[in-house]
Each structure stands twice: as C-alpha cells, then as structure tokens.
Amino acid sequence: MSKHASTQTNGSPVSEIPDSAAPIPAVDPRLLVREQGLTGYLGEFKRKLRSGDLGSLPVVIGLVLIAAIFQGITGKFLTAGNLSNITLYIAGPGLISVGIVFVLLLGEIDLSLGSVAGVSAAVSAVLSIQHGVNEYAAALIAVAAALAIGALHGFFFAKIGVPAFVVTLAGLLAWSGLQGWVMGNTGTLNNIPGGFIANLDNYFFESVAAAYGLAAVSVVGYLVAALLGAKSRRQAGLLAKPVGEIVLRAALLAVLAFGAAYTLNQDRGLPLALVVFLGVVVVTDFVLRRTSYGRKVFAVGGGVEAARRAGINVARVRISVFMISAGLAAVGGLFIASQAGFADKQLGSGNVLMNSIAAAVIGGTSLFGGRGKTWSALLGMLVIQSIVTGLDLQGISQSIQYMITGAVLLAAVVLDSVSRRTQKSAGRG
C-alpha cells in the first residue's frame, strides 16, 4: 500500500492519493469562443460590453445615427458632394488630432498645437510668397521649425519638470504672438495659384481607377498583413485568428472601402487630402502598435515609474512625442491654409484646437493615458464634421454648433470615465 493510503478501523483502504496529479492544461478563452462559432462571438461581445470594453462601437453607432438623422431632415447629407466635402474638411484638424493622440497616450495635453499650426503656415507663406523660396522647401522649413518647437516643449516638460499644461499654454500664447510677428503688417497672404500649398486641399485624382485602386490596396494590404501576422503567431506557438475570421474582416473592409470609392467617384474623384490623412493614420497606427517605440509610448502612459524601472528612457519618449505632435500640427496647418486659400494671423485659432482634442477623445482615446489609437482621430473628426455639416445644411448658427459639439465631447469623456471604472470593477483596469 502506498504511504499516502488511509485505512478504516478494520484495516481496509478507503482512498488512495496519487503521488503526483496530472496538471490540467489551461485553455485560452478565445479558443473556446472561436470553437463555439457565432454564439461564442456574441457571448464574448456581451462580456466585453458588461466589462466596459466598448472599443469603437459608440462612435460607429453615433456616425450611423448622425447620418440617418440629417439625411432624414435635409435629404442632402448622404449626397456624393456633401460626403466628399466632409473628407476635405477633416484633413487639417484631423492631422493635428493624430498628434494629440500621441500626447494623450502619455496622459498629458498639448494646448499649443493650434498656434503651432498657425505659425507654421505663416512661415511657409512668408518664405514662399514674400521671399521667393521654393514652396516645397518653405513647407519643409516650416515643419522643421515646428519639430524644434515640440522639442522645446518636451525639454521643459521632461527635463525641467514643468507641467505639460503650463508649458503648452505658454506656447499657445508665445507662438500665436510669433505668428502675428511673422505675418507683419501684411495680415493675409493668398496661396500661390496652382502651387503646392493651394493643391493640398484642392487636388483630386479624377480617374475612377485612383479611388478604386486605393480601396483595393487597402483591402489586399490588410488581408496580407493579417495572414502573415497570424502565420507568425502560429509558428511562435501563440494564439492566432483563424483564416475564416480574417477573410470575413477583409470582406467587410472591402464593402466599406469600395462603397466610399464609388461615392467619391460620383463627385470629383479621390481627394489628395484624404489620401494624406489616411496615410498618416495608417503609418502612425503601425508605429504605435507594431514597433518597440510604440510600446514604450504606451508603457510611459500606463505608468511612468514602472516604465522607468523597465529601462525605458522616459524623458526621450516624452520629448519625441511632443515633437511628433508639433510636426503633425505643422502639416495640418498647411492643409488648413490650403482649404482657406490663404495664411493669416488668425489661422489655427478659434475652435481648431478644441475640435482636434475633442476628435481624439470622442474617437476613443482616453484622457487618462495608456489607451487609444490614431484611428480615433479619424473617427472623432468624422463625428464632429458630420455634426457641423448637418447643422450647416439646416442653417443652424455657429453658437449652437459649439454647444452641441461640447455636449458630444462631455458625453465621450463621461463614457471614458465610466468605461474605466467598469473595467476596474471587472478586474481589467
């Protein structure tokens, strides 16, 4: 009898405890979800909702409701011309918003980006129009100046320890003053007709092949990247999406992409502004999700001390993020100047900064740091511009538009706060 056996009073064995029990292998819950098919996915979706993991769902639902409401009221919202105009209006502020996403991931804020956009447009206009500098070179100098501004902000924040709010608030005032000084007594400088800046927000690829080609490249690119990623994960012994799920996602993307291409081709074709905006969103999304630098940004936003103990150069990451945000603000300023037709002392003021911040938050980037993606800028700008455009079609005053946009922003922040609290309660915060 084993030394672990126990006996009754009469000596007969009652039970035998084995010397070693075979371990029960852990099963990834995502495998169970996929094995259950549609029922499993629905259950997982409900579980995420209960735990506060809403993702982009509120934004998507909001866009559908906005489109349905304004189309029902005006009958013009979903026309090709109106939708094409929306893609133009979102490019400049949207590029600024992408930069804001980077800053928000650190749990910080940059209040200077509207002024940075304005001074960058002013520098480019003065150099090219008044001093005869090549427009491409003038634009590059303006972006380089913005990168230097971002490095300066980051230095005071990361090295000196001045709060980012104070540093960028000072920047808002200083660069706005510099913008006025650079413009001088001129006040306004019209873009060179047919020039580089003029074409940024006004050039269209008129061939129908351009829009459909971009849609095809997007779908094929996603499909190839997803399949290769899944293959790499399987080879590494990690859980990977099944091929059927990847193909289904690609099919849904194809419907959306080719539908958008068809709509744009019914108007003036594919806007250059949309191509640039989407390109920046895709590249920055790749940087954040697929590179070590992106992981460092999330790590610093998730916890500075933990990131520092993990060997991350926190100051370098912070400075680089402020440089990225300022550089993208400069590019956004050039697009805003292109849309307006001129650069002046007021470019970048008004609601440009607020809309850019609101877009990032409405799109799903957390104000508390460590959570978000650059696609938030695109989704959020679509929400804001759709509201503005729909109200314009109704002839609603700008003051009412500000109030509605503010209410939407507040709702997004409340949703973010509730989501974080729910996730903490569910053990996922």
Automatic annotation (TrEMBL):
Compositionally biased residues, Polar residues: 1-13
Recorded superkingdom: Bacteria
The protein, known as: Xylose transport system permease protein XylH
One Pfam family cited in the UniProt record for this chain: BPD_transp_2
Region Disordered, residue ranges: 1-22
TM helices/strands, residue ranges: 54-74, 86-106, 113-130, 136-157, 164-183, 203-225, 246-264, 270-288, 317-337, 349-368, 375-393, 399-418
Keywords, ordered alphabetically: Cell inner membrane, Cell membrane, Membrane, Sugar transport, Transmembrane, Transmembrane helix, Transport
Compartments it resides in: Cell membrane
GO molecular function, a single term: transmembrane transporter activity
